[in-house]
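re: the backbone from monday

yeah here it is again, tokenized this time
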């Protein structure tokens, strides 16, 4: 078991030991390495001023992602390559084409947010992506400009279309790949500062044993939630176990009747697999956080933490998803809707973790729809998340699965409403008669995102909306994106 972490920082090997393992990457860069180009605006992964690029050698191919440095723990970087704004320039301080693109369009004003914007586009460029205006809007959804200079910033992204990788970038990628191969470590890494212990296992068996031996440890995959426990709640995490290096839990397995998504799969990677079969699900996931959050956070993590306002659990509930859990060498399966017991309590024993989620593929007659209601279109937490899957045959409702987030202490099925629908004619009269069932199923609360009255009214209106969309498919009832997932 190694007692230090090793990663690349702007093309050079960086070894870290005897340091608080939950220090954020941003604070490490600014305080320990004096790389102050990355800024802190929010400290919660919302504004993107801290965006850096993390590269990983996966099966012989380098992949680069933009992440929020303010909520990534430095101990999560074992075996990865980190690029900051200071490392983007080429030899002789020659500006990178992305930096040149920003200069030519006057894509910077006060400059505070500019490093984050540059790094978001830099990651996309290294991966060979091109962007039109709509796609650029999605790319930059996690980067906020206080001077409202988005037009020129989006133009900079458009101007990078068809821009081939420079010789400097080709060399950069090749060097990253070679150096990451050289520092590759297949052992568990343990970073300990005397007060906190951070384990980073390299395979699922080591993860299972570590968690069974340390059942009170905090599991962390992308830290998009747990990171805020440290930065905002000022919590000290005595023992952390990281899933980010467990490569044998990163697969998406496709079968004739289901998709199995393992615990290490990010939202970014899960999205296209789910959108292929459930386009509306992919469209909703496009609004889950922003690119940086989706690159770091995992689908299973969004489920396992049991938040009542997580967007994916209600959607997966109406699809009939199941969870596969593991404790040591013992495995079991549970329906997702049975996993949530009460606020902060799930059907998961100490030392047991969610290994994967199984999503059944649509059957004939299924018509799932997913609705995220929030104050902002992008980068916002849902006030209400309503999901529907109602099977209508010969104008009669054969089955109904309805689930909501934000309406109860856990994501929850609307079984009273379902019972009022099944067996009835698929008509406006049936819908109106079933609305009172929401008062039986849910007792929402008022908070900063919405009042209880608003939530209840929205839940009823979403059933009406689902009906209208199914009976009048040409109706303009929603804003649909034009990105990769509007299939």
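seq for it, each position gets an aa:
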């Amino acid at each position: 078991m190694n007692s230090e972490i090793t990663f690349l920082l702007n093309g050079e090997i960086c070894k870290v030991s005897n340091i608080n393992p939950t220090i954020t990457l941003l604070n490490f860069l600014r305080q320990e390495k004096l790389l102050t180009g990355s800024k802190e605006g929010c400290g919660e992964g919302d504004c993107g001023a801290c965006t850096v690029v993390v590269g990983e050698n996966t099966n012989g191919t380098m992949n680069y992602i933009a992440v929020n440095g303010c909520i990534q723990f430095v101990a999560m970087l074992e075996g990865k390559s980190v690029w900051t704004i200071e490392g983007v320039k080429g030899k002789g301080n020659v500006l990178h084409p992305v930096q040149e693109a920003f200069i030519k369009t006057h894509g910077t004003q006060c400059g505070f947010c500019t490093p984050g914007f540059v790094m978001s586009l830099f990651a996309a460029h290294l991966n060979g992506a091109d962007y039109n205006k709509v796609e650029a809007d999605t790319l930059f959804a996690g980067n906020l400009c206080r001077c409202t200079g988005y037009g020129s910033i989006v133009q900079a992204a458009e101007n990078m279309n068809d821009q081939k990788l420079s010789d400097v970038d080709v060399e950069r990628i090749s060097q990253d790949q070679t150096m990451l191969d050289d520092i590759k470590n297949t052992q568990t890494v343990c970073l300990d500062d005397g007060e906190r212990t951070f384990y980073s296992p390299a395979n699922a068996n080591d993860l299972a044993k570590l968690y069974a031996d340390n059942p009170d440890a905090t599991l962390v995959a992308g830290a998009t939630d747990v990171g805020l426990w440290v930065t905002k709640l000022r919590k000290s995490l005595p023992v952390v176990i990281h899933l980010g290096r467990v490569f044998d839990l990163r697969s998406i397995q496709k079968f004739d009747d289901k998709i199995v998504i393992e615990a290490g799969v990010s939202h970014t990677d899960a999205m296209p697999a789910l959108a292929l079969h459930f386009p509306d699900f992919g469209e909703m996931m496009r609004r889950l956080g922003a690119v940086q959050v989706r690159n770091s956070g995992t689908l299973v993590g969004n489920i396992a933490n049991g938040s009542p306002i997580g967007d994916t659990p209600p959607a997966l509930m109406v699809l009939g998803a199941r969870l596969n859990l593991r404790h040591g060498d013992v495995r079991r399966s549970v329906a997702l809707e049975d996993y949530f017991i009460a606020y902060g309590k799930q059907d998961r024993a100490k030392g047991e973790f969610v290994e994967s989620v199984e999503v059944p593929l649509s059957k004939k007659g299924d018509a799932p729809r997913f609705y995220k209601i929030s104050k902002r279109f992008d980068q916002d937490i849902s006030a209400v998340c309503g999901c529907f899957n109602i099977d209508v045959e010969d104008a009669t409702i054969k089955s109904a699965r309805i689930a909501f987030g934000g309406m109860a202490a856990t994501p929850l099925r609307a079984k009273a409403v379902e019972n009022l629908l099944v067996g009835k004619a698929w008509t406006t009269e049936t819908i109106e008669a079933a609305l009172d069932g929401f008062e039986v199923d849910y007792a929402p609360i008022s908070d900063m995102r919405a009042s209880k009255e608003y939530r209840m009214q929205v839940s009823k209106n979403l059933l009406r909306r689902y009906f209208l969309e199914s009976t009048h498919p040409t109706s303009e009832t929603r804003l649909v994106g034009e990105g990769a997932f509007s299939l």
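Residues 482-487 have pLDDT under 50 and may be disordered. The chain has three domains: 7-184, 250-360, 368-471.
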